[in-house]
Write the structure tokens for this entry.
Amino acid sequence: MLYLPEVSVLEAHPFLVASSPLDDTYELFISECGDYTRRIVDAVGASGSLRAYVEGPYGGVAIRYRNYRGLFLVAGGVGACRVRARPGQMDRYVTDRTVSHFLSAPRLA
Amino acid sequence: MAAVLGILRDVYRDGERPGNNRPDMLAGVFVVWAIRTLSEYALFSQELDELRAVARIPDDVQPRPPLHLAVFATHELASKMEADEAAAVAAEAGSRCELVVAYGQPDLHGLLFAASRMVGAGAPQLVYACGPRRLVGATWDVVSAGRSAGIPLDFFDQSLAI
């Protein structure tokens, strides 16, 4: 749970943590897609930094994946927010990098 | 994707820090990432490239598990020609590819069973799903089918209400 008093005194919102437990820093990906996240972007743009209070973590994040032979991770979207599409960016990616295959997949039953 | 990225960082980067143990059981890591359009891929493409590069580093002492990434643009339409070509290479490509970029919904059943074959029959696998409820529910259905087929699967999930 992230509480940013300079953005909102009353609100605290949950965000997914992108950093590893061994990282020195605590990283969140927040995209501008709603009122609260827009205010975060504006506040960071105005001051350059924000005071933040963090509570948690919540949810089943303590996964002992080292005990398994295979790790199958399924992710949907980029996080709690959908980002605006940036046309042309993927075209550059495709031409600059190596992509093994383009293929179609059947729809989920 | 943020939560999955955290797990990947933990798997592939902890060996860089003294005193940390790298995963010793993992024989393969498979990531299925469903996004609306391919442009969203660009947000994490650099970091995913770096992680894939780390996964390729030869390490005689304790090799890192190979990383397979399948990206599915669910709201981007493939042309008829692309779809036809894709149908031809789909069977051949399978999970041998390190990076697969595809249009449409992921075939979770096929991908999970292919991953299971790669890590070995009867090997325990952990399945973690993070995203919209529909995707998490679909993953749970596939895990149920895998368990019925005798694959030892454990399932964890984190749903997002968006």
Observations:
- Residues 1-85 of chain A form one domain.
- Chain A has two helices and four strands.
